[in-house]
Amino acid sequence: MTAPTVRRRRLGLELRRLREELKLTLDDVEARSGLSASKISRIESATRGARTADVERLANVYGAPDALAGLLVTLAKEGGRRGWWQTYDLSPAYADLISLETDAVSTRTYEPLLIPGLFQTAAYARAAISAISMTATPDQVAPLVEVRMARQAVLSRPDPLKFRAIIHEAALTTCVPGAGVMRDQLQRLLDIATYPHVTIQIMPATAELHPGATGGFTILGFGQPGLEAVLLEHLKSSLYIEESTEVIRYAEAFERLTATALPFDESLSLISSEKDAHK
Length: 279
Fold this sequence. Notes:
This protein is α/β, with parallel strands linked by helices. It is 50% helix and 12% strand. Strand 4 and strand 5 (228-233) form a beta hairpin.
């Protein structure tokens, strides 16, 4: 059996949330929808796909608003869709991230040591991927750089991803091998900061302790309350957090980081100064 897609998991989580908010059991929903309790359970656990007609029936039973019901139907239709990234040999966690980015409306990220992937130049991405993988050959790194560059299309599509990034000052001063690589990367940040849907703030090295001291994280939003996911990345693994209470905790942490980081104009001035320091 193939692993459930991200869309199926999101669909199942949301349907379960709607059911539990109404304090309905699976048997209650079976009686009201005509769908078997076992089928509803499999949809909620993402162990099987869902027909759009079944999702429409469940959304009607739960009294879901039209906008949310439409989103759930879309998730059901696209639950098994293959994306362009699936032609590459990627880890399941990385493939999930790209799928989430493609569907997301907004992203909030805190990066303590690296420039966010969607902002990276090809040269910076090559250096970062090589350093983190430790053993990858140039031939193995090249397709990963291609993927990272292709991911950036979400920032220039007709309905671009709204992106709020808080980057620690340490990421601006990291020594990256290659003549002009870091200077070009900092210029890329300045260029992207002109996009109306992108906000970049810098966390100064002089800032007091804050929630980001435990590490970086990314929050992906999908346009509806309760449909968010948090990504925590580690050296050889990634963790997705989808429970609403935990996601809210990270959202609160991000807002605290926003208040602690330099304002937008001051952040751009610092990036510009660091760029000028790289000859």
